[in-house]
Amino acid sequence: GMEKINFSGGEPFLQDRGEFVGKLVQFCKQELKLPSVSIVSNGSLIRERWFKKYGEYLDILAISCDSFDEDVNVLIGRGQGKKNHVENLHKLRQWCREYAVAFKINSVINRFNVEEDMNEQIKALNPVRWKVFQCLLIEGENSGEDALREAEKFIISDEEFEQFLDRHKDVSCLVPESNQKMRDSYLILDEYMRFLNCRNGRKEPSKSILDVGVEEAIKFSGFDEKMFLKRGGKYVWSKADMQLDW
User: Fold this and answer.
1) Locate the Radical SAM core domain: which residues (predicted)?
2) Which of 23, 60, 232, 233 has the most beta carbons within 10 angstroms of its beta carbon?
């Protein structure tokens, strides 16, 4: 019954310079015959040769871009050394056109980019979807004593998030995701094939589907199907069904 799979990280292109995720994408399309296969990446490690080899099996490539100001990207932690993140974004956009992969942008709105006006740049890139997330605290991941990184300084209020959305209301591809919409509306599997329940503000793992099967494990996923539909989680997600001008 699965229709869509999304590979996210960390950075999916780190392993074997993208070969690993490429083989996963190919398997999902050829063997599992899934209507939609997508990847979320920061784009820094993607090369044109990857598109030549695996582009036909990928429906959507989502690139994380939180700012079109390179200084802000460095401040947020999106800096890519000598590589300019914004310039790289345009190069990836062109490759998606050439290799018929739907292009998507994900932006996390936080303390350092909440005042930014991204209208012109987003319209120029013309993604099929622009997912705009409100910065979310997850205990043990970006909040609390055992956190991998501290995100408290990035947090914005609901009102500030709404002001950002209002500033970009004329961008037709914008899909907003507040903290409320985001927390329970995803089915997330970790590297041990465990569903991660985020309802209590932290990622609580189920037993692995390899041990107990999907039907048993999914009971502990915290997934809210109504919220999934409310946030626009169901859309035309197969590039075969998208009438795109590549």
Assistant:
1) 1-174
2) 60
C-alpha–C-alpha distance, residues 60 and 103, integer Å: 6
Q: Which element (helix H / strand E) includes 230? A: helix 225-230
The matching CATH number, chosen from 3.20.20.70, 3.30.1240.10, 1.10.760.10, 3.30.470.20, for 4-134+169-183 is 3.20.20.70
DSSP for 157-170, written as a single string: -HHHHHHHHHHTTT
The pTM of this model reads 0.87
Domain spans of the chain, in order of start = 4-134+169-183
Residue 204 has φ and ψ, to the nearest 5°, of -100, 120
Question: What CA–CA distance (Å, rounded) separates 184 from 186?
Answer: 6
CA distance 164 to 183: 20
**Tens digits of per-residue pLDDT, 83-132?**
788 889 999 999 999 999 999 999 999 999 999 999 999 999 999 999 99
